[in-house]
Amino acid sequence: MLIIPVRHTPDFLTMTSRERRDAEALILSLKDDILKKDPSVTGFNMGVNCGVSAGQTIMHAHIHLIPRRNGDTAHPRGGVRGVFPGKRSY
C-alpha cells in the first residue's frame, strides 16, 4: 500500500508535522484492517525514500506499507541495509 499526502510535496522530509501525524494514524488504521482481513500477515515493512540518490523515483511524498508473512522469503533480514554491498541476502 502507498500512503500519499494530498498536498504535493517532494518527499517525507518535506511533509508538515500534521501530514506526518495523519499518515501515521492512517498507517495504524490500515495495519489493523489488514490484520483483520488476513490473519496470515505476521509483520510489516515500511519504506520511505527521500531523493534520487536514496532511490526515490516518484517525486511526491509517499510511504510504502508492505504486509509480510512468515516464510514469504527465505532470508527476510536486511531491510535498508541492502544499500550496503554484501549486507542484504535477498
List keywords for this structure.
HIT family, subunit A, alpha+beta, 90 residues
CATH class category: Alpha Beta
**What proportion strand?**
5-15%
Backbone CA Rg = 15 Å
Q: Outline the low-pLDDT stretches.
A: none
User: What count of helical segments does DSSP give?
Assistant: 1
Please tell me the total number of domains: 1
Shape field: flat
Helix content: 10-25%
The CATH homologous superfamily is called HIT-like
Give, in order, the helices and strands.
EHEE
Strand order of the largest sheet: 1-3-2
State the total count of DSSP E strands.
3
State the separation between the terminal residues, measured CA to CA: 21 Å
Structural class estimated from helices and strands = alpha+beta
Give the CATH topology: HIT family, subunit A
Biggest β-sheet strands, sense, barrel: 3 strands, antiparallel
Mean pLDDT: 89
Just name the CATH architecture.
2-Layer Sandwich
Description:
The protein is 23% helix and 14% strand. The model has no long low-confidence stretch (mean pLDDT 89). The chain has 90 residues and is α+β, with helices and mostly antiparallel strands. It has one helix and three strands. It has a three-stranded antiparallel sheet, with helices on one face. The chain has one domain (2-71): HIT-like (HIT family, subunit A, 2-Layer Sandwich). 4% of the residues are buried. It is flat, with a radius of gyration of 15 Å.
Short description:
The chain is of the alpha+beta class and 90 residues long.
Indicate the topology.
Elements: E1 2-3, H1 17-37, E2 43-47, E3 63-68
Antiparallel strand pairs: 1-3, 2-3
